[in-house]
Amino acid sequence: MRKIFDFHGGIHPQENKHQSLQTPIRDAGIPPELVLPLGQHIGAPASPIVEVGQRVLKGQMIAEPLGFVSVPVHAPTSGTVSAIEDRQIAHPSGLQAPCIVIASDGRDEWAPLTTAADYRQLAREELLARIRNAGIAGMGGAGFPSAVKLSTRPGSQVNTLIINGTECEPYITADDVLMREQPGRIVAGARILQHLLAPGETLIGIEDNKPEAIAALRAAAQGTEIEVVVFPTKYPSGGEKQLIEILTGKQVPSGGLPLDIGVICQNVGSVVAIHDAIVEGRPLISRVTTVTGEAIAEPGNFTVLLGTPMQYLLARAGYRAEQNRRLIMGGPMMGFTVPDANVPIVKTTNCLLAPGHGELPAPSPAQACIRCGMCAQACPVSLLPQQLFWFAQGKEFEKLESHQLFDCIECGACSWVCPSNIPLVQYYRASKAEVLQLRRDHERSDQSRMRFEARQARLEREEAEKTAKRAARKQAAQQRAQAAAAGGSGDEDPIQAAIDRAKAKKAAQQAGGAQHDASEQEKLEKAVVTTRQRLETASSKLAQAQAEGSDLVTALQTGVDKTRAKLAAAEKALQEFQQAGPALTAGDAAGDPAAAAIARAMAARQADAAMAPADKARNQLQGLEQRLEKTRDRLASSQANGDEQKIIEALAMTVTRLEEKVSAAREQLKNPGDA
Amino acid sequence: MALLRVTSPHAHGPMSTPRVMQNVLLATVPGIVVLTHFFGFGTLVNLLWACLVALVCEAAALKLRRRPIGFYLKDCSALVTATLLAIALPPYSPWWLIAVGIACAILLAKHLYGGLGYNPFNPAMAGYVILLISFPLQMTAWTPPRGLGQTPGLVEALQACFWPSSYDGVTMATPLDLMKQNSSLLVADLWAQTPQFGRWAGLGWEWVNLAFLAGGAWLLYLRVFSWHAPLAMLASLGLFAAVFYDGGSSASGGSPLFHLLSGATMFGAFFIVTDPVTSAVSVRGRLVYGAMIGALVYIIRVRGNYPDAVAFAVLIMNFAAPLIDNYTQPRTYGRRRDGSEQ
Ligand code: SF4
Ligand code: SF4
User: Fold this and answer.
1) Number of other residues whose CB lies within 10 A of the CB of residue A484
2) A38 — alpha (psi -120 to 50), left (phi > 0) or beta?
3) Residue of B229, B323, B325 whose CA lies nearest to B271
């Protein structure tokens, strides 16, 4: 017998699992419309790669992952994309989020699938890529991308692979039925993970209230190195950290990952999904969801397509809406109420709980905390919930943090035991949000302070450089004066030499210089033309406003004046350029590349000043984009080369800064009026 | 019909604060019965009058503080305070003594600090100590237990309470007083020569203590409180008594069993020390809290000027509870003892 460990606290709420275990898994069928949120997982939402009106096939990718911590979304059945828009989704905030809506055609036509005859032949990276491309995210409720979790750093050793079949939340039986009915797929999936991670041991953890599932898995795991470990039922033993402690006796360091102590956890639902993705090539397009509660006539488990409106699934199970006031996604301990029954089923929807009127009654109003300590005894993280409550009420944020508010897993055990019915978890959620907001504000002010200081330093530096240059120039001039006074006593006449040099260069460069000047002149001319046009429109508008007696007259008048000034500036710049141009090209100075560059820059600046703001912005944008690209390349190459962390950080910061600037420039381009 | 939005958890356990309080009240029944058996109806009259005054005080305080009276009266905490104080007072106390004690407990010790849950001191013990300091004579007037004298009947009990000037009861030193005052006799001789001593401790008192122990055990079984604080208190009291027993010489402080079954030991351990509001909160904190009370009880009993020590010991430790909390924060999952990340 394997030694199992206990974790601190925990509670024994009524299980209420039998209601949904009366029938085998049923198929919910294909609803007429499927709504697929782009963010069904933790991480960046996927980005759509289909268009409205496009026909899609079952299993076809319709949104691709954006970034490393992200997964794609697939069409759960064949049909037509009818909309890509914001819809209400199942989220505690009750907010809307971008979704792809598919009108199903009922044909359920599959896209071609890539299967693997023998996954052992596939490279590690390929396996991970397939898991990621199948859109698999933790199906136990959290929704963390599985491929990310399984991407171990090279050199890190996985001692224990844990398959989580605990399902400690009351009412939910989705994993239970999966283990009863499809133990073979779970074991096969676990073996894929064994191949991928080469763990020292592989354990399937199950609470002792699921004897059928235990028997089925034990039978399926015969002859493999997978061990089914059974432990006493206690909420929340299915929490990842708690399960790890039960099975290994070790605790995941606060702020760390299970991998830090050599453990990786996967929920049984995710393991089945991984199996399907690797062996059958099927992406994650459906899941098993429990539908239960007294307002459900025939509670049970359903295989349901992702994106199915809850209403549709509820109807399949005999939903008695008149008996139901709260619809909970998830279990009674950690689930949240959904705003209406039309929100779609997503990858993390393990249960729909529709309690009847007398079921799970709302607790009576909260009374004073009598500091009985029952909450502290129940807390699986060994916090002192009563103290946290005290500090949350007083908004003592430092105390909250020193009492490790952020280690709270919001399991609800403390609220469940509290004899005074204090909604403790609610206080913690609110406090966490407040603390985070404070931290963000703090960071922001830090950043702006740093930015200000950096600017100040730059200005000082520039000033210092200027002074230094001035001094150098002065010195050089003095030396030259001295040399002149001393008389030219060189081997050759310096003036003659300069003339020769200039002549040679002139011959070589004349063609190029002329070309360049031509384009410069064109730009300036264009600027004059556009400014003139703008002046005309503005003037006509002004005339109109004056005729109508509108109160915009003054504003328009200033606009016209400004544009007129700009036009004058542009014309002057053009004129100067035309005069300076021949002089520059003709004179000796043209031979000096430095002088030419200065002239070019000056001309550019003048042109810039004269240019319409939109053009200016466009130019700026182009420049910025080029710089951004270059810096990105450099960042990538120094990352690849494994350069010093400082360098990478500095580059990364430059990239973000440039990105900001680019977007600001784009913004400006969109509203050229307020240049 | 729109769906309701509420936050998790949606389920709640069977415990409720009124239930906790009612269980505590029920658990005092064996002790009260035994007290009544040995000392007559005085305790019961104390109890009824105390409860009545407590309800009036509580309602008045709630009204002044503009709180819903019915809702807060239902939590039964006022009745618990009244019951505990009534048990601690000598039977046949006059009505005004009880009324002053209850008023101090409920109005000063509880509501002045913000009501249930905010009071730093155990209200019943605060009321008791105020009375003890203000009216030492009345507070030390214990009638002899059954077997050592006439036990007054119900009429006399009512008379003693509500018309005290007409009542002239017999009082007698308690075993704890005798033990402290003794300086010449060996413990065995003291036992043999004084009728107030019984089988293990004071006559009658030993049974009173056992009855409160039974009530406390039932509460422990119901998990109304955890064992840490009461057992730590009993253990440290027993330990101190054992260390200073001195072989039963004339300088002995009394045997461990004597101390465990005398005075308010068991009543204090299971009904006062376990008061959650005023004790330390963590498991380790409660062990420290209980042990320190046990030690203080022994020291005050043997060296102090007052006959029993539970009330003083508890109040002193009420002071110290926040400090204990500060140093006994439990180790959070995945962290070191000092709270730093691993
Ligand atoms: S369980 Fe409730 S009443 Fe008891 S200490 Fe915790 S918060 Fe206070
Ligand atoms: S919700 Fe937080 S504080 Fe409450 S028991 Fe769970 S982990 Fe502990």
Assistant:
1) 9
2) alpha
3) B229
Q: Which residues of chain A lie closer than 8 angstroms to B16, CB-CB? A: 364, 419-421
Q: How confident is the model at residue A667 (pLDDT cuts 50, 70, 90)?
A: low
Ligand 2 center–CA A168 separation, angstroms: 15
- Distance between CA atoms of B282 and A383, rounded to whole angstroms? 9
Angle formed by the axes of helices B17-27 and B77-88, nearest 10°: 20
B168 burial type by CB count under 10 A (0-12 exposed, 13-18 middle, 19+ buried): exposed
Where is mean pLDDT largest: A497-501, A529-533, A556-560, B111-115?
B111-115
Per-residue confidence (pLDDT) for residue A588, from 0 to 100? 45
Q: Which pairs from B325-330 meet CB under 8 Å and 24+ separation?
A: B325/A387, B325/B280, B325/B281, B325/B282, B325/B285, B327/B285, B328/B280, B328/B282, B328/B284, B328/B285, B328/B288, B329/A384, B329/A403, B329/B282, B330/A376, B330/A382, B330/A383, B330/A384, B330/B282, B330/B283, B330/B284
Chain A residues near residue B5 by CB distance under 8 angstroms = 94, 337, 339
* Residue A577 · residue A520 · CB < 8 Å: yes
SS (H, E, C) A178-200: HHHHCHHHHHHHHHHHHHHHCCC
- For residues A373 and A388, give the distance between their C-alpha atoms in angstroms, rounded to a whole number: 12
N-terminal to C-terminal alpha carbon distance within chain B:
51
> How many CB atoms neighbour CB B55 within 10 A?
16
With H, G, I as helix, E, B as strand and everything else as coil, classify residue A310: helix
Strands A160-164 and A201-207: parallel
Q: Are A403 and A394 in contact (CB under 8 A)?
A: no
pTM greater than 0.80 (yes/no):
no
- Bridge partners of A110? A58
B44, two tokens: 């019961």
**What does the alpha-carbon distance between residue A170 and residue A12 come to, in Å, rounded to a whole number?**
9
Determine the distance separating the centroid of ligand 1 and the alpha carbon of A391, expressed in angstroms: 13
Best residue among A7, A12, A254, A383 to mutate for probing ligand 2's pocket (most ligand atoms within 8 Å of CB) is A383
- Rounded Cα gap, residues B266 and B270, in angstroms: 6
Query: Across A15-19, A139-143, A671-675, which has the greatest mean pLDDT?
Result: A15-19
The token pair at B121 is 């001191």
ipTM: 0.81
Question: Rounded distance, CA B33 to CA B41, Å?
Answer: 10
Take residue A18 and report the two structure tokens written for it: 């039998």
B117: closest CA among A415, A431, A387, A403?
A387
Domain ranges of chain A: 18-353, 373-495, 517-583, 601-675
Task: Give yes or no for B14 touching A (CB within 8 A).
Answer: no
- Cα(A98)–Cα(A88) distance, rounded to whole angstroms? 9
Can you list the alpha helix ranges (DSSP code H) found in B65-148?
A: 69-73, 77-88, 95-103, 123-134, 136-139
Alpha-carbon span B110 to B101, nearest angstrom: 12
Cα end-to-end span (Å), chain A:
76
pLDDT of residue A589: 43
Fold that domain A18-353 belongs to in CATH: Rossmann fold (3.40.50)
DSSP code of A278?
I
